[in-house]
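Margin note from the TA: students keep mixing up input and output lines. Inputs are the sequences; the output is the structure of the whole complex. Example:
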Amino acid sequence: MNYGYIGQILEIDLNRNEILKKPLDDDLVNRFLGGMGISSWLLYHEVPPHINPIDPKNIIIFATGPLTGTLAPCSSRTEITTKSPLTEALGSANVGGFWGPMLKYAGYDLLVVKDRASHPVYIWIDDASVQIRDAEHLWGKDSWDTEDAIRNELGETYPHEIQVLSIGPAGENLVRYAAITGGYFNSASRCGIGAVMGSKNLKAIAVRGRGGLRVADPTHFEESVLRAVDRIKKDPGYSKVTLPGPLEVSNRLHKMGACPGLNFQIGYFPNWSETRSTEIALQYIKNSPNLRLCGKGCHCCPMACYRVVNLPNGKYAGLKLSGLFVTFLHQWGAQCGISNWPAIWKCEELIQRLGLDLGSTAGTIAFALELYQRGIIDEKDTGNLSLKWGVENAIMELIHQIAYRQGFGNILAEGSVRASQTIGRGAERYAMAIKGSEIMGSDPRTRSRWWGFGIQVSLRGGDNIKTTHAATFHPGDFKEESLKAGITESEYLERFINQLDIFPEVKDRIFGRPPKFDPYSYRGVAAMTKWYEEVSSVINALGLCLMDQTMLTHKLGPTYYSDLISSCIGKEITPKGLVEIGERIYNLQKMYMVIHGFDRKEDDWPARFYEEEIPEGPSKGATLHREEIDQVLDEYYTLRGWNHQGIPKEETLTRLDLKELIDDLP
Amino acid sequence: MGSILIDPSRCTGCRYCQVASNFAKRRLCTYESFCIDILRNDRESLYVPKICMHCEDAPCMSGCPEQAIVRDKETNAVIIEEAICNGCGLCSELCPYSIPKIDENRGIAVKCNLCHGEPYCVRYCATEALTFND
């Protein structure tokens, strides 16, 4: 393995102080590619169901893919896999920046960390030299200051040649949704993986790699890279990526009445345009003292989706933040009801520094705010905090309490589902979570059906980033775009579908013949979900970013990925072969859920979405229907080769070369 | 005269220029670039690419004891003749921006040569922080 892969796994046992360098297994590479594929296999075999996520026997794997750190566009990613303290099953999160490429330049494809250190430590990987160093002096620091301190003490010869992944106080205090932060603004945040680092007394992992990576066929690889870059840059969605970036979605969702307002009680705020619109956010960005025309980018990214804001005055003067995603607005602005951008950004700065996951922190706080609204809790429970919607001081105080597990925050640090069981009094109904993980993004009753279905069946629960997030077609725009192009909507749809890099038979399954696309129907949703789960698994195994999938109209697809990986490693993997690997990885992860007792009953929404209609706004009256959901679940399980309970059938595992897992079927 | 123009307000710090120039010259993906550096402050999100400006009156060229640094007639770039350079490093000391670097493996000084008139760093810069004016 000389090309794309380094061929080496770094395995560190923190209890025994043991540092091992092991060869990367060819068979694993052939079956699971790398990244999320190989790491899921290792987790499956090393961490069986009886092991508690914060037990020293849990392991945490940092896995790059064969394209991580190469010239391929958006090739920055590292997959982090462990057993999740939040869902107590598959923990899977992903991070960009420059840490993954550096790990490879230092000479390792994967880092596996086992057991627990007796006192706080950090790992320092300096090319071939690997040390476990004392971190007593770093314990308690937030993730930004940790990064600065490590850079200083290791003596960089030029700025940011050392890349750091670290946890903040939340990870140290085993908050069940603590994140891992890198490069200040990048974070692998879902599933509480930061708490696993905390449970191992592992504060940070610093890496400097001065080596490099070779590809098998540089000429063809470069051609494939340029073809992919060209497709990205010529996409109609591309101009929106750099400015306003992902913020642009804010207005669109509100127009649809799809905001997760006040813990999914409302989809629409009458004063939204005057307070939280994209235009107002852009004013702050444009008025920043150091005007930046472009965002901030991860390794070799032509899309640079991170907007930068720098507040020169006002209540939060001095705030500097990067990565202004629409999710900040969803979670703080809509879910918790904060009505001004600077406070939304301040909350974001707090969770980045304290090392918390956005979705679960805001989701759990919104849950508490609703309990307070309904009188289920009061000042006696909250330690005299008045938890009114949108009151930024109280919300920020709760963020601190959660990270340090103080007062009422100690209950919320367990996540909304566990907190609801502790509180009782009917609180369970207001925990908006799937598989124990708080739901992120727009309201599933209103937005396109595929969007919500991805969240519903997502293996890690709570969001669709590894499922149908990649299927963002901006379908609401079809009419507008066809008018602009001066053609009929069906002509526009035909042209749009032709451009997609999806296998023809799958296109037929998704869109039908003649093609139709109704975002509010479940027609084609099962096929679309399966497709994007597999494509996303391939992307996460290759070490690429999903952002092109989300932001672009036509996206890259298996044809492009096949060209890139084949010329990189010098072995042909066809587009069909790649998607099959994606399917294998997805089924492997599914099996990890199955052995932890998850089945059809966990692929479901909280009762609110079936029983309550959206009360106001453009989506007034919208709700989910049980029969429709059951029908699409059946269709999806059948298409996947799973039984009625959503458990892979024996023949499916055999077909996917996962025979070893058959004995684990219930 | 060909030169690379820099607009730091457009630089996203993505390092595509560094990886691409290494890939072009050494077929290697790495940040250890001999051609282009980015002065960076990630916490402030500030990035300034730093690259040879191929000065009209280049101190590296006039000061090279081996006369290994010459001006390319076609591209007008200031280039290092690898066959002549002995890697003494004086060029780096003479350059006000310390642009030439010593490639320890090959024992020579290395720097941007404008990729013979088609700079790779510019080709891969998506936001036009780097543009080529030929």
